[in-house]
C-alpha cells in the first residue's frame, strides 16, 4: 500500500482550550505533572495503548508514538478562554478535583495560564455569570476577535501548530437548520447578520479555529461543527474536525456493554440511566434547554448498536430514558446508575444494574490529550473533514446524516477504526474489519 506522508511533529503544539474549569485544569495539571515525572497519564491511549502491526513473523505490538510521529508532552503549550478570569492554578484549586499536593508542584506553570476573554452569550448558558467576556458587536465580530486571539497566542508562544478543543459548558440545543447551517456561504451570512438564534458562540470558535489552520474538537454535545457548512469549511481548509461530547462515564459503559447483549442475542426491554453531578457542568445542565442538548447526545448510542430493524424480536421495543440531576455535594464525583431490563430464552425477564461512581474530569482529561494529539497527527497526515477514527473518544460521533450515514457507537468497532487509522498513518496495512 502507498504510505501516507506524515509530517514530523516538529516544534511546539499550542493546545487552546475553550473553558478553564474542572476538565481543562485537570487535563493541564496532569500533563504538566507527567512531564516532570510526578504523575502518570493513565487512561491515555496515546501514552499507554499498544497496537499490533504486521502479521505472522512480522507481528509486533507498539505504542502509538513508535508507529507514528506524535507531539511529545514537553512540546505542548497551553492557553484557554473562560468567562471567569481566574488563572489555571486558581481554577484547579476551585474545582476540587485534584488534591493540593498534585497541583502545587506545577503551580508556577499553571499561574501563567490566564484565560483570554471568552466569546460568550448568556442566553446559551444562563447559569454562568462570569465577567471575563468579550464585548462583541456581532457574531462576526466574535469570530474576528477569536481569530486574533489564536494568532497572538501562536506568535507569543512560538507555536508551530495549534489545536482548539472545547471543554466548556453545554450550550442550549441548536437544531440543524438547513437554510443557514447547510452551506458555508449561508452560515457566514448569518454570522455577519448577527443571527444569534442559529449561530451559537461555539460555532464562532470553530469557524475561527478552522480559518486559522487549527483542527477543532467539540467536547460537548453542542451542534457546533456537526453541520454541513462546517464540514465544507474543514474540507476547503483541509483540516480535521471531530466531535461531539467526551465519552467519559455512563456512555462509555453503554457503548461497551450493549455489544454484550448484541453478540449474546439477548433482548432488551428498557435501559434507564440516571446521573448525579455537582460541578459547573451539572449546574449548567440543570437548565432544561441545556440538558436537552445532552439528552439528544446520550440517547443516540443504543439504537445504532442494538438495531430494531436487524433484530425486531430482541430490540424492536426498547424504552430508553436518560436523566441528569444536579447534586452539589458530589461536586466532580459523578454517579451514573443504570438499570437494564433484559430478557432471554422464551422471553423470561432478567435485570442488570450498573453503578459507576466515577470522577468525571479524571476520565475526561486523557480524552483531551488523545483527541488533541491525534487531531494534530491527522492534520500532519493530510487528513481532513470529519475524523471518524476518533469516534472511540466521543459520545455522539459525527457522521454525515444528510446522506443517511449512521454513527458507529459500538466501542469495539470504534477501537478497530482507531487502530486501523494509526496503522495507516504509520505505513502499515489496516488489517482489521469493522463489522
Automatic annotation (TrEMBL):
InterPro entries: Myo-inos-1-P_Synthase (IPR002587), Myo-inos-1-P_Synthase_GAPDH (IPR013021), NAD(P)-bd_dom_sf (IPR036291). Residues 249-361 form the Myo-inositol-1-phosphate synthase GAPDH-like domain. It comes from the Bacteria. The chain crosses the membrane at residues 12-34. The keyword Methyltransferase does not apply. One of its GO terms (molecular function) is inositol-3-phosphate synthase activity. Keywords: Membrane, Transmembrane, Transmembrane helix. Pfam families: Inos-1-P_synth, NAD_binding_5. GO terms for biological process: inositol biosynthetic process; phospholipid biosynthetic process. PANTHER family: MYO-INOSITOL-1 PHOSPHATE SYNTHASE. Belongs to the myo-inositol 1-phosphate synthase family. This is Inositol-3-phosphate synthase. It comes from Hallella mizrahii.
Amino acid at each position: 500500500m502507498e504510505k501516507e506522508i506524515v509530517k514530523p511533529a516538529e516544534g511546539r503544539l499550542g493546545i487552546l482550550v475553550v473553558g478553564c474549569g474542572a476538565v481543562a485544569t485537570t487535563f493541564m495539571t496532569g500533563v504538566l505533572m507527567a512531564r516532570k515525572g510526578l504523575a502518570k497519564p493513565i487512561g491515555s491511549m496515546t501514552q499507554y495503548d499498544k497496537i499490533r502491526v504486521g502479521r505472522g513473523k512480522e507481528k509486533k505490538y507498539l505504542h502509538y508514538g513508535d508507529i507514528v510521529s506524535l507531539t511529545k508532552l514537553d512540546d505542548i503549550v497551553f492557553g484557554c478562554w473562560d468567562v471567569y478570569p481566574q488563572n489555571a492554578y486558581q481554577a484547579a484549586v476551585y474545582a476540587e478535583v485534584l488534591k493540593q499536593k498534585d497541583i502545587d508542584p506545577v503551580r508556577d506553570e499553571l499561574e501563567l495560564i490566564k484565560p483570554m476573554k471568552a466569546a460568550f452569550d448568556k442566553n446559551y448558558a444562563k447559569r454562568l455569570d462570569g465577567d471575563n467576556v468579550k464585548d462583541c458587536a456581532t457574531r462576526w465580530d466574535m469570530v474576528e476577535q477569536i481569530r486574533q486571539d489564536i494568532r497572538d497566542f501562536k506568535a507569543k508562544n512560538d507555536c508551530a501548530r495549534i489545536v482548539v478543543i472545547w471543554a466548556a459548558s453545554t450550550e442550549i440545543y441548536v437544531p440543524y437548520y438547513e437554510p443557514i447551517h447547510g452551506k458555508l456561504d449561508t452560515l457566514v451570512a448569518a454570522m455577519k447578520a448577527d443571527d444569534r438564534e442559529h449561530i451559537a458562540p461555539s460555532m464562532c470558535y470553530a469557524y475561527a479555529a478552522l480559518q486559522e489552520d487549527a483542527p477543532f474538537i467539540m467536547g460537548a454535545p453542542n451542534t457546533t461543527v456537526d453541520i454541513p457548512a462546517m464540514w465544507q469549511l474543514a474540507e476547503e481548509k483541509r483540516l480535521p474536525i471531530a466531535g461531539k461530547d467526551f465519552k467519559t462515564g455512563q456512555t462509555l459503559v453503554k457503548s461497551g456493554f450493549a455489544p454484550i447483549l448484541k453478540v449474546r442475542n439477548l433482548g432488551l426491554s428498557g435501559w434507564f440511566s440516571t446521573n448525579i453531578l455537582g460541578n459547573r457542568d451539572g449546574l449548567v445542565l440543570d437548565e432544561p434547554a441545556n440538558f436537552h442538548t445532552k439528552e439528544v447526545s446520550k440517547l443516540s448510542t443504543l439504537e445504532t448498536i442494538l438495531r430494531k430493524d436487524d433484530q425486531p424480536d430482541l430490540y424492536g421495543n426498547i424504552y430508553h430514558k436518560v436523566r441528569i440531576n444536579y447534586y452539589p455535594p458530589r461536586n466532580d464525583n459523578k454517579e451514573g446508575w443504570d438499570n437494564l431490563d433484559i430478557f432471554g430464552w422464551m422471553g423470561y425477564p432478567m435485570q442488570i444494574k450498573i453503578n459507576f461512581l466515577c470522577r468525571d474530569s479524571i476520565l475526561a482529561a486523557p480524552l483531551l490529550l488523545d483527541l488533541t494529539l491525534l487531531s494534530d497527527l491527522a492534520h500532519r497526515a493530510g487528513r481532513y473533514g470529519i475524523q471518524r477514527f476518533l469516534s472511540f473518544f466521543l459520545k455522539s460521533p459525527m457522521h454525515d446524516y444528510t446522506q443517511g450515514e449512521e454513527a458507529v457507537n459500538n466501542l469495539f468497532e470504534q477501537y478497530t477504526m482507531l487502530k486501523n487509522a494509526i496503522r495507516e498513518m504509520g505505513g502499515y496495512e489496516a488489517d482489521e474489519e469493522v463489522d
